Amino acid sequence: MLEKDLDSYRRAADFLNFNNADVLCVQHEFGIYGGAAGSYVLALLKEVRMPVVTTLHSILSEPNTAQRHVMDELVARSDRLVSMAERGAEILRETYGVPASKVDVIPHGIPDVEFIGSEFYKSQFGLADRQVLLTFGLIGPGKGIEHVIEALPEIVRRHPNVVYLVLGATHPHLIAHEGERYRLSLERLTEDRGVKDHVIFYNRFVSLDDLKEFIGTTDIYLTPYLNEAQVTSGTLAYVFGAGKAVVSTPYWHAQELLADGRGVLVPFRSPSAIAAAVCDLLDDPARLEKIRRESYQIGRQMIWSAVGKRYLDSFSHACADRKATPRAAFAGWTLGNRPYDLPPLRLDHVLRMSDGTGIFQHAIFNVPDFREGYCTDDNARALILCCLLDELGGQPLAETLGGPATTYLAFLASAFDSSSGRFRNFMSHGRQWLEDAGSEDSHARAIWATGIGAARARNSGHRRLSSQLFDRGLAEVANFSSPRAWSATLLGIHEYLRHAPGNPAALAMREVLVSKLVGLWKECATENWPWFESSVTYDNARLCQALIVSGMWMPHSESLQIGLKSLRWLVSIQKTQSGCFRPIGSNGFYQRDGARADFDQQPLEAQAMVSACHEAFLATHNTEWSREAKRAFEWFLGRNDLGLPLYDFSTGGCSDGLHSDRVNENQGAESTLAFHLALAEMNCVEHLTTPPPLTNP
Fold first, then answer.
1. Which CATH code of 3.40.50.2000, 2.30.29.30, 3.30.70.20, 3.40.1650.10 fits the domain covering 119-302?
2. Cα 178 to Cα 173: distance, rounded to the nearest angstrom
3. Rounded to two decimals, what is the model's pTM?
4. Burial class (CB in 10 A: 0-12, 13-18, 19+), 514
């Protein structure tokens, strides 16, 4: 299965259903599946018909919003949950409200090895007559290895024959962001502390057979991890079950496994405590041997054959529970009403429209129009798209978009005029700014994009620059009069608060702008015209979306209800008798007591409606909003007044609009980005059904 391909999860569900699998065992860790916090796995769980037993390798007591979404869905869609430690079961009960009767505690499985003295293996490694300390696993700053190296001078002073083996490759995510900087810092530290001859780095992955031999050489295993909130450690389980003495910091799994003298716990970040614990064990061979034998004996309960029997019991329990109380379909999802296939991601035209300066505004057919140059509006949209796709698509897509994302952000940085506090909008192909300040809407769209960049960009430099631009440009919005600028800013604030939840300027501006939008509504809205202005013009659903999002997260019930009511009306006036989406046309818009313009229909409107309906769904859990989002998205694909698609599957571009008799064949940046942003949002949320809690992010 391709973990970054959402549809592959549905195909896997079809395969399991067709072959009448008895039970599905899911091994869950946030980093191994596609989507935000690994949410793509929910598309599989939503459609399988057999009982589901989910083993949770990470159980977070303080999850972020995306992680909480996924965990709530996993809990709802699993017949049994497996925790590898009692502490994990406790968190499931206290944080996620899981009944104890639904949870099985089954330890991490380990290979069955003989209880043999370390001397047997040491000669194979040329370590005869050495006392061996070991740490293994993927290497990264959270491992705390530097604290062991800091402890080594004292250990070596008392036990000169000690050697410390650091076994394992650097974590791939760390390699991607900073290369081998951490490992090199450890190597330099061994030189600075004068223990270089007592430390051996094995920078590689090893097979299970090789790992057994490394463990076999070990006298004391060290896990100096820095984070208490680690409910499972496979490396700790392997070594403990092999009958090795362990010195560890008191993260949750270690507290549980090493209790009652089965190992030695030391404070976090304390080289002196590590040195004392190691030396005490080496000074007392009888105690060391006693710990080894007790660990090995308890480890017999953790070998694969014993763990396998407990899993079989859990599977049988899940099957019995399913027969006794069949699980109801979730949120109307059945085999006859499954998510439809979304178009595959194709970014050819987005990349074609971009150069080293930014993304061009316009195109002649599918060819960039150099004469029209660039604008902040479109580069902000392009940056938002990169952030969303980076979050959804994993490392390969991140590599594809890394360069363009840098370019789009650099454009916004250049657009900002520090002397006025405003973003400029239009730039010529010759890189000349064509104005001193852009429109209020373009400024606010830059605020929105930098808010998303501050919260979601994986590149730390991108996050810092985005945060800086957001902070510098936010204050100017207080002077704006455009409701759409207020709305875009509110959406940016919502994103930024994920990065800095207590930021006083952002919180204060949110209060001001929500008050302004609510005030507009109260001045203008009537029962027959529940809208913010006397006309319905462009980017309309953003006003509703901004109040829904802000109302949920402040929380502010009045603005939430106004957002939902105005969006419901907007849906009603943008739908044909045949049931397709018909946005307000830009050729005249819709004036109160006047005739509405049906054409020219703009992609921007369809994308705004997709976004707003998704937020309404998350706020209410009402599947009506999911259907409306789908209706608006299908406008791009040909479910519209003319029955003609605006999205071009061959180029990855989107036409600039729908006229009364034809499609506008030019594929400009705004239109193309509108489609791809809508597609990203459809991929992101169509498989989530649980709304977030009404608390601050």
1. 3.40.50.2000
2. 9
3. 0.71
4. buried
Which position has the token pair 């608006």?
Answer: 632
Residue 659 near residue 642, CB atoms below 8 Å: no
Domain at 348-685: CATH architecture: Alpha/alpha barrel (1.50)
Give the range with max mean pLDDT: 11-20, 43-52, 265-274. Answer: 265-274
Is the confidence at residue 561, as pLDDT, over 90? yes
Distance CA 162, CA 157 (A): 10
- List the one residue out of 483, 510, 505 whose CA is nearest residue 494: 510
**How many of the other CB atoms lie within 10 Å of CB of 143?**
25
The Cα–Cα gap between 538 and 484 comes to: 9
Candidates 3.60.9.10, 1.10.15.40, 3.40.50.2000, 3.40.50.20; correct CATH number of 6-109+305-324? 3.40.50.2000
Measure the CA–CA gap between 37 and 81, rounded to whole angstroms. 18
For residue range 346-391, what is the model confidence (pLDDT) as tens digits?
Answer: 999 999 999 999 999 999 999 999 999 999 999 999 999 999 988 7
Phi, psi of 363 (to 5 degrees): -135, 155
Which structure tokens are listed for 403? 């360069």
Give the per-residue SS3 of 90-148. HHHHHHHCCCHHHEEECCCCECCCCCCCCHHHHHHHCCCCCEEEEEECCECHHHCHHHH
287-290 long-range contacts (CB < 8 A, ≥24 apart) are: 288/219, 288/220, 288/245
Please write the tens of the pLDDT for every residue from 300-352.
Answer: 999 999 999 999 999 999 998 776 655 544 333 333 344 457 888 899 999 99
What is the gyration radius of the CA atoms in the chain, in angstroms?
A: 29
